[in-house]
DNA sequence: AAATCCCCCAACCGCAGACAT
DNA sequence: CATGTCTGCGGTTGGGGGATT
C-alpha cells in the first residue's frame, strides 16, 4: 500500500523520497523527462485513473497522487501553457468573485488551464494586492459572497475559512450592499445554489438605474428599461484589473469594462449582469468537434439559453441569453428588451458592430435590437436561477419553442450554436434538478448522477475517474460507438426523471454528439464534469472573428440542430 | 557585482467524498 | 455498517530566476 500525506515514510532520511508499504522508495520532487515519458505512455495505454497502479505496473517511483498531479497539470493533452490572456484573467476575476477559491471549477471554465495555474495566478496577485493595499476585485465588482451572504453556509473545506477571511481583508465592500458577516465570506455551493440570482452587481453611485442583464434575475429593475434607456445609459466607467501583472502597466490587460466617457464620472449606476460564465457547459470536445466539422465560426461563449430550473415556469422561460464572457473576437451580446420587462439578448456577430459608446463590458453590451421578439418572457414568471452548480451541472439550457421566430440572421449566428449547447446541458440540468428534488446536496456532485460516455469495450479499470461526466480514453475512444447512458443513476433519480423522456433526450444527445469523428479532439483525454466547457479559445482560433463562416453552415447541419429538442413535460419539478 | 525582493511555478500535504470490500 | 482505498480539491511550500536596489 502506498502511503500518502503525513503517513508517508521517509526513506533513507531523504526528504525527496518516501517508501510505500512494499518497501519501494517513492521519489519526490521534480519530475524527470524519463518519468514523464513513463507516465505518459502508461496513461495513454491504460487511461487515466487508478493512479496507484502506475507505480505497481511501471515501476515508476512515484506515488499515485504525484502521478495524477503530474498528468493533470503537465502531461495531459491540450494543456495551455503560458501567460493568461486578458480574457482569461477577466474570467478568473469573474469566477473568483462568484465562486471564491474554487480553483477546479474555475479551471473548468478555462480550457487547457489547470486549477493549479489559476490558483497560483490568483495567489500571486493576491500577495501583490495585499502589499499594495489594493482591492481584490475591480472596484465595481461585488463578489457573490458580499451580495448574498448565506446563513446556511456549508463549509466544505475548512481550509477555506482562513483563506477567505484573509482575502476579505483586502476586498473593498461597496456601501450599497450589505456586508453581512458569515462564517465565511465566500459562498458555498449550497449558498450559491440557494441564491436565486447569479448576477454580479456593479455599483457606482450616480444613477438609480439598475441594469438587469440577466432576464431571470430577481434583480428586476423597478423601472423597466426602455431600449433607449438601456442603450444610452451604459454601465460604469472603465475598470481595469488589479490582477494584471504590474509588468503590463498597472492593470493593462483587464479592461473589464469600458464605458463611454460620459459615464465615467457617473457614480451611481447600479446594474447587474448575468452570471458571468456558465459554470459548466457541454463537453468542449463535443462542441468543438461539431463546429470543427461544419467549419462554423460559431462562438459558443454567448448562447441563447433557457433555464428550466424549478420553480421556473416552463411556460415562462421561453428563452433567455446568458453571456458567460467574451473575448475580443467573440460575438458580442446585445441587450434586448421585450414587451414584458424581461430583457433578452442577441448576439452581434462582431464587436465592431457596436458603437463605441456601448462597447463594454464586452459581455454586457446593452445595445438594443428589438427584432428579437421571439424571446418571449411571459409576464410575471417565477424565476429561480441556480447560481452555482455541482460540477456536472450545466446552467445554460436552451429551449426553442419555435426557431422560426428568429430572424434569419439570428438563426445563422446563434441558433445552431445555442441549440448545440442544449442537449448536454439539458440532460445535466435534468439530472441535477432531479437530484435536487430527491434531496441531493453537497458540494461535490454525486458520482452516480453522472452520465458516462465510454467506449463499449473499455473494460479496464484504469479509466475510473468517477467524476468524469464523460470518461473517455483518448486513444481507445471511438465516438461512433459512443454510449451515453444513465446506468449510473440512482433508481430514485431515474424514477424522477421519467425515463422515457430522458431516453429520448439522451438519444438526441447521442445523435448530437456522435455525428462526427473523434470526440477527444485534443481538448482533453478525459472530459471531466469540470471540463464541460466550450473551448472558446479553440473556437476563436478555429474561426474568424466575424460571423462570415457562420453563414457557411450547411442546411444539413441546421436541420440537425433543429432536431435537437427536449421535452420537459414529464420531468417532475421542472415545469 | 552582490544582495534582496518578488514572481512564477511545480509539487507536496491534508482533508474529505465516493466507492469498494 | 465499518473500514480501507482511491481520487480530487484546496492550501501551502520552496526553488529557480528575473528585476531591483
From TrEMBL:
Biased composition, class Basic residues, residue ranges: 147-164
Taxonomic classification: Eukaryota, Viridiplantae, Streptophyta, Embryophyta, Tracheophyta
Name of the protein: Uncharacterized protein
SMART domains: SANT
Annotated TM spans: none
Keyword entries, A-Z: DNA-binding, Nucleus, Repeat, Transcription, Transcription regulation
SUPFAM superfamilies: Homeodomain-like (SSF46689)
Superkingdom, natural source: Eukaryota
Subcellular location: Nucleus
Region (Disordered): 135-256, 436-470, 545-566
PROSITE patterns referenced in this protein's UniProt entry, alphabetically: HTH_MYB (PS51294), MYB_LIKE (PS50090)
Compositionally biased spans, kind Low complexity: 165-185, 197-232, 457-468
Domain HTH myb-type: 23-75, 76-130
PANTHER family linked to this entry: TRANSCRIPTION FACTOR MYB120, TRANSCRIPTION FACTOR MYB33-RELATED
Domain Myb-like, chain residue ranges per copy: 26-75, 76-126
Organism: Brassica napus
InterPro entries: Homeodomain-like_sf, Myb_dom, SANT/Myb
Pfam families assigned to the protein according to its UniProt record, in alphabetical order: Myb_DNA-binding
Amino acid at each position: 500500500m502506498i502511503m500518502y500525506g503525513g503517513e508517508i515514510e521517509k526513506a533513507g532520511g531523504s526528504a525527496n523520497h518516501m517508501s510505500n508499504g512494499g518497501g519501494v522508495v517513492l521519489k519526490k520532487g521534480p519530475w524527470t523527462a524519463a518519468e514523464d515519458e513513463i507516465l505518459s505512455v502508461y496513461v495513454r495505454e491504460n487511461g487515466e485513473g487508478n493512479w496507484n497502479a502506475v507505480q505497481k505496473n511501471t515501476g515508476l517511483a512515484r506515488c499515485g497522487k504525484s502521478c495524477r498531479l503530474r498528468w493533470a497539470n503537465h502531461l495531459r493533452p491540450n494543456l495551455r501553457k503560458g501567460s493568461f490572456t486578458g480574457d482569461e484573467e477577466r474570467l478568473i476575476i469573474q469566477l473568483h468573485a462568484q465562486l471564491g477559491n474554487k480553483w477546479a471549477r474555475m479551471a473548468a471554465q478555462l480550457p487547457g488551464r489547470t486549477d493549479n495555474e489559476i490558483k497560483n495566478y490568483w495567489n500571486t496577485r493576491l500577495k501583490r494586492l495585499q502589499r499594495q493595499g489594493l482591492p481584490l476585485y475591480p472596484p465595481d465588482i461585488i463578489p457573490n459572497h458580499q451580495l448574498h451572504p448565506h446563513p446556511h453556509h456549508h463549509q466544505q473545506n475548512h481550509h477555506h475559512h482562513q483563506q477567505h477571511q484573509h482575502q476579505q481583508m483586502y476586498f473593498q465592500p461597496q456601501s450599497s450592499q450589505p456586508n453581512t458577516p458569515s462564517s465565511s465570506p465566500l459562498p458555498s455551493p449550497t449558498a450559491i445554489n440557494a441564491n436565486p440570482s447569479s448576477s454580479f452587481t456593479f455599483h457606482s453611485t450616480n444613477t438609480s438605474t439598475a441594469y438587469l442583464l440577466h432576464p431571470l434575475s430577481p434583480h428586476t429593475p423597478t423601472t423597466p428599461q426602455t431600449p433607449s434607456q438601456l442603450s444610452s445609459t451604459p454601465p460604469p466607467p472603465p475598470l481595469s484589473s488589479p490582477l494584471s501583472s504590474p509588468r503590463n502597466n498597472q492593470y493593462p490587460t483587464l479592461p473589464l469594462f469600458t464605458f463611454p466617457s460620459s459615464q465615467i464620472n457617473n457614480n451611481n449606476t447600479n446594474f447587474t449582469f448575468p452570471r458571468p460564465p456558465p459554470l459548466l457547459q457541454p463537453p468542449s470536445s463535443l462542441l468543438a468537434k461539431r463546429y470543427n466539422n461544419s467549419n462554423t465560426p460559431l462562438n459558443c461563449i454567448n448562447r441563447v439559453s433557457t433555464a428550466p430550473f424549478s420553480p421556473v415556469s416552463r411556460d415562462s422561460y421561453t428563452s433567455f441569453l446568458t453571456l458567460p464572457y467574451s473575448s475580443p473576437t467573440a460575438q458580442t451580446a446585445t441587450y434586448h428588451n421585450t414587451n414584458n420587462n424581461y430583457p433578452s439578448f442577441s448576439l452581434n456577430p462582431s464587436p465592431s458592430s457596436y458603437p463605441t459608446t456601448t462597447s463594454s463590458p464586452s459581455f454586457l453590451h446593452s445595445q438594443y435590437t428589438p427584432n428579437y421578439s421571439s424571446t418571449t418572457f411571459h409576464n410575471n414568471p417565477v424565476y429561480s436561477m441556480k447560481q452555482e452548480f455541482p460540477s456536472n451541472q450545466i446552467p445554460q439550457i436552451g429551449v426553442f419553442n419555435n426557431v422560426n421566430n428568429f430572424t434569419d440572421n439570428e438563426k445563422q449566428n446563434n441558433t445552431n450554436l445555442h441549440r448545440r449547447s442544449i442537449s448536454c446541458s439539458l440532460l445535466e440540468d435534468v439530472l441535477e434538478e432531479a437530484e435536487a428534488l430527491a434531496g441531493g446536496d453537497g458540494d461535490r456532485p454525486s458520482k452516480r448522477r453522472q452520465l458516462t460516455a465510454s467506449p463499449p469495450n473499455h473494460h479496464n479499470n484504469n479509466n475510473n475517474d468517477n467524476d468524469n461526466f464523460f470518461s473517455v480514453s483518448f486513444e481507445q475512444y471511438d465516438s461512433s460507438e459512443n454510449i451515453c447512458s444513465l446506468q449510473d443513476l440512482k433508481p430514485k433519480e431515474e424514477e424522477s426523471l421519467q425515463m422515457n423522456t430522458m431516453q429520448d433526450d439522451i438519444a438526441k444527445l447521442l445523435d448530437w454528439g456522435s455525428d462526427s469523428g473523434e470526440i477527444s479532439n485534443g481538448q482533453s483525454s478525459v472530459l471531466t464534469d469540470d471540463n464541460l466547457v466550450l473551448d472558446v479559445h479553440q473556437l476563436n482560433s478555429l474561426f474568424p472573428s466575424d460571423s462570415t463562416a457562420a453563414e457557411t453552415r450547411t442546411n444539413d447541419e441546421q436541420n440537425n440542430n433543429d432536431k435537437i429538442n427536449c421535452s420537459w413535460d414529464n420531468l417532475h419539478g421542472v415545469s
